[in-house]
Structures are given as C-alpha cells and as structure tokens.
Amino acid sequence: MAAMTVTRDLTSLRASRAAMRGRVALVPTMGALHAGHIALVAAARAVADRVVASIFVNPLQFNAASDLARYPRTEEADLAMLAAAGCDLAWVPAPEAMYAPDRATAVTVGGPAERFEGAARPGHFGGVATVCTKLFLQARADVAVFGEKDWQQLQVIRRVVRDLDIPIAILPVPTVREDDGLALSSRNRFLMAAERTTAPLLAREGFATASAIAAGADATAVLGAAMARLAQAGFGVEYLALVAAETMQPLDRATEPARLVAAARLGSVRLLDNWLVA
Ligand code: AMP
Fold first, then answer.
1. d(CA 34, ligand 1 centre) in Å
2. Between the N and C ends of the chain, which has fewer C-beta atoms within 10 Å?
3. Residue 30 CB less than 6 A away from ligand 1
C-alpha cells in the first residue's frame, strides 16, 4: 500500500488530486476520529479507487465559541488511523487556508435544515453546507461519504447537492455503536463515568420507540412515555420526534418513510441519535 499523503494547502491538494486516476471518494471529518469515521473510510474504499479524507474543525458550523474551543483535536492519532484504514490523501487545511478574511459567499439551506438541529443551533447547517460545498469542489470527488449518525445533516447535504447541481454522489453509512448501543461520537469522551453508564438508555428508548411506532403504536403516546423515562434518568431531552426521513417534516404517524430523531443533554454533552422506523 502506498504511503498516505498529507496536504495542508489547496495548491498541493489540487496537484495530488490531478494525479489520481479512477473514482475518488471524499470522507469529510472534523478529526478526533473513532471507529465510526473509519467505517466511512472503509465504505469509501469499497466504492472508489482513491480515498481522500478531510480533517477540518469548521469554525462556521459552531454556534457556541465554547464548543469550538473545547472540540477535541487529536491530529497525530487521526492521521495514523486514516493511514491504517487505507486512506490515500489527508486534506488538513488550516482555517486560513479554508476561509479568506474577506470571504463574502456562503451557502444557506431551508427545507430539511430548518427544524431540530437547525433550530437548536442557528447558523450550524449554513456552516456545514458552506464547508461541504467547498470540500466537494476542492477535492473534485466522485462520491462523498456521510454517516447516518447525523441524519439531518445527511438530508441537508443531499438537498444542497441536488439544488446546486454538484456532480457528486452521496453515500450514507449506518451508525457505528458501542456494544451497549451508544452511538460513537467525538464528544462522548466528555461524559463523566456515571453519565456514560446512563447514556445507552437513549439508544435503547430510541430503538424500542421506533419499533413500537412501526408496529402501529400511537406515536404521540409512546414518544411522550419515552421522553418521560429519559427525563427521569437524568437526560435533558431537547427533542425526540418522528419525522419524514428526507424532508425532516414532523409526522403524527409513520405513513411514509420515517425516522425517529433525538437530541438530549447528559451533563455537559449533547447526544444526537436517530433510528429507522420500519
Ligand atoms: P464529525 O467528525 O463528527 O463531523 O463526523 C464526520 C462524519 O462521520 C460525518 O459524516 C458523521 O455522520 C460521521 N460519523 C460520526 N459518528 C459516526 C458514527 N458513530 N457512525 C457512523 N458515522 C459517524
């Protein structure tokens, strides 16, 4: 296997990209990599001849400066994990390489970006859409790989790509979980020991509620009961909602392809998860 190249400026990224033959896959990340990210690299390798992974903690998508400041940065370990996973090129731009001080252009998204994370984190999806559009154009990849862990983000990216005619396919990868069900996340390391013990309850309630709704239970009733149990266990539930899988519009009943989406605080950590309703 050839050694992985690490590029930090756009000129050398473009040169490396131009030398690549065949189908190129892009895996956008913010670093602090875990097995969920590596599953994306594996999926990328399965569909492409060359894999580019980006590591960029995008200031535009953080609505709280404190969250940006404490976001974990583990670049050395990240690069080792990417190389071991068979990534060909790591694109690791500094913020100055990504954003000109006088930049005046951004991507804004309505529709699937409006509710849930979009409402809880003003500006977040605009920041995600802007950076992903730039990454797609910088890497000129044929396919970009995203985790279902961030379900709403996946729908937002699909809409951006469709609406702006960006010639890239979007490949979703199922959420990678700990054995106890907790979805892997770079922020899980901030859970205190007692919180870590409680955390898998979110996934347990999510899976159980999703299958109850799929089996015909009254959604309002089972969602209310699950939220009450989570609150009792110490979660600050922001939402646990049944939505149309693509548009993210709230649903009363799973009459079309549907997803259960959740955000809940546990201590200082905001956990995000979602489940198929089928
Ligand atoms: P992040 O570095 O958190 O911005 O995530 C980068 C990519 O990894 C996104 O497409 C996420 O959806 C994906 N991802 C994060 N956690 C997981 C997970 N547990 N399983 C699958 N994909 C994930």
1. 9
2. N
3. yes
DSSP letter for 22, please: S
pLDDT tens-digit readout, 90-129 = 999 999 999 999 999 999 999 999 999 999 999 999 999 9
- The C-alpha atoms of residue 118 and residue 66 are separated, in whole angstroms, by 18
Distance CA 217, CA 223 (A): 10
- For ligand 1, atom 17, name the residue with the nearest CA: 36
CA of 29 to the centre of ligand 1 (A): 7
CB 60 within 8 A of CB 127: yes
Question: Which atom of ligand 1 lies nearest, measured to the CA of 153?
Answer: 12
Find where tokens 């690069």 sit.
79
* Amino acid, res. 239: Y
pLDDT value at position 212? 98
First-to-last alpha carbon distance for the chain, in angstroms, is 41
Q: 196 CB contacts (<8 Å, ≥6 apart)? A: 182, 188
d(CA 180, CA 20): 41
Q: Which residues are catalytic?
A: 37
* Fold of domain 186-277: Pantoate--beta-alanine Ligase; Chain: A,domain 2 (3.30.1300)
**β-pair type (24-29, 143-147):** parallel
Residue 148 φ then ψ, to 5°: -70, -15
| pTM recorded for the entire structure | 0.98
Return the ∠ at Cα 149 (arms to 135 and 171), rounded to 5°. 50
Which pLDDT value is given to residue 23?
A: 98
Query: In the CATH hierarchy, which top-level class contains the domain 5-173?
Result: alpha beta
Which 3 state secondary structure label does DSSP give 168? coil
